[in-house]
Structures are given as C-alpha cells and as structure tokens.
Write a structure and sequence with these properties.
This protein is mostly helical. The protein has two domains: 48 residues, 50s Ribosomal Protein L19e, Chain O, domain 1 (Orthogonal Bundle); 60 residues, Non-ribosomal Peptide Synthetase Peptidyl Carrier Protein, Chain A (Orthogonal Bundle). 60% of the residues lie in helices and 4% in strands. It has eight helices and two strands. The protein has a two-stranded antiparallel sheet with strand order 1-2. Helix 1 packs across helix 3 and helix 6 runs antiparallel to helix 7. The longest helix is centred in the last third of the chain and has 21 residues. It is rod-shaped, with a radius of gyration of 36 Å.
Amino acid sequence: MNLRNQKKLAADILKVGISRVYINPETTEEIGKAITRDDIRYHIAVGNISAIPKKGISRGRHRKKIQQGKKGRQRGHGHRSGTKNAREPKKEAWMRKVRALRDELRKMKENKEIDDRIYRKAYRQIKGNLFHSRRHLREHVERMKAQ
C-alpha cells in the first residue's frame, strides 16, 4: 500500500522530515484510509505513527582522547600542529625560568645563606641568562661564597 501522502502529512504535523516518520507495519491498512490531517493526528495520538528520534554524533571517542591527553598521551610529533616556539613561546619559557631562579635567590637571602653583595650579583647574572636551572644557581652561589 502506498502511504506517501500520509507520510507527508505526518511529517508536516510532527515537524520532522519524511524519512523520520515511522508507521507501524501492522496498521498500514488503517493508516491507508486516513486522508485528512485529523485522521493522521488521531493515528499519532494512538501511537500508530511516530517520529524516529534524531541521531546525534557520539562524543565518546573525543572524551577518550581528552582523557588520554590529560595523562600525557597524544603529544607525539604526529599530533603537533604548531612550531616549538608557538607551543611554548620563548618569552614565556624565559619568564618561567627567571621567576623560578629569582624565587630561589630570594629564599636564599631570606634564610641568610647569602649576603646583599652576592644577592645583587647573582640577580644580575640571572637577568643575563647565566643559569639554566635552580641547581646551577645554587652551585654557582656556593662557589661565589667560597671565594
């Protein structure tokens, strides 16, 4: 039985596309006799005609990828799109290092490990990019104190 017109009416009433209209195969004879919008509304109310739910796009795979990223995965060469400098700008890396070194130097001064003269000299050397880590700074300060 051809139910094209009934499907069109049902799609219009349900506000969905024709492909999303479901007609119960057991009631095709009854629905075939329905020719008015009211007839179709009746069949919708009874449950002979219904709208198939919309299919979404699953986020499951994306969630999994995000979780892996948090664990430090997905960071290899194949996953990088920016340059080394774009992923961590030189200035930001510099600021992070200098702040850490200055913090270390300040703590050393507060704990009376160094005097003002050594503090000032080391502070300038930090600015001059002499040290590459906190450990390097500590070793250098120890040598300065020994002199």
